[in-house]
Design brief:
By secondary structure, the chain is an all-alpha fold. The relative contact order is 0.08.
Length: 163
């Protein structure tokens, strides 16, 4: 979150809990710096929901660590659902031999999943992409070869039985 978003967050918090905000200007500036630094990777809308969840569970004043901890948990859960497969067909602009490009694309994908802009995807999507192959019909050459094998097998088993 940016300092401007953090100020907006403080406004939301002040409507709920007046124990959180500092009273002097110096303390407020330090608090703004601390909170915006601690929550720099947390999206504003998530922080608002996290505050609501915090007060639903606790009577203590909300702290930046409460919001950041919830964000890390959500991020960890999202990344756990991300399969560690990298489909080159999804990135036709990449040269297959470009290792740096591969790593950059992989990093960008993980960051997008972590931020919530891209769904993690997973095994159901990978399965849905597979195509069922129809059994087809055997050709005449195959049918003749199979019949020949059956005759040979019968001849062998018939000769073994005669002994």
């Amino acid at each position: 979150m940016t300092p401007a978003e953090t100020l907006e967050l403080f406004e939301l918090i002040s409507r709920i809990d007046d124990r959180v905000l500092r009273t002097t200007e110096d303390e407020q500036a330090a608090q703004l710096m601390l909170w915006s630094t601690a929550l720099r990777y947390v999206p504003f809308d998530f922080a608002g929901r996290a505050i609501g969840e915090h007060y639903a569970e606790s009577a203590f004043p909300v702290m930046p660590k409460d919001i950041a901890t919830r964000w890390r948990k959500v991020g960890r859960e999202r990344l756990e659902r991300l399969p560690d497969t990298f489909e080159p067909c999804a990135y036709p602009q990449l040269d297959p031999d470009d290792e740096a490009g591969y790593r950059a694309a992989l990093r960008a994908r993980r960051e997008a999943v972590l931020a919530g802009t891209v769904r993690p995807g997973g095994l159901p999507e990978l399965r849905a992409a597979s195509v069922r192959v129809s059994p087809g019909r055997p050709n005449d050459e195959y049918l003749r070869a199979r019949e020949e094998m059956r005759r040979r097998r019968l001849d062998r088993t018939g000769s073994e039985v005669k002994r």
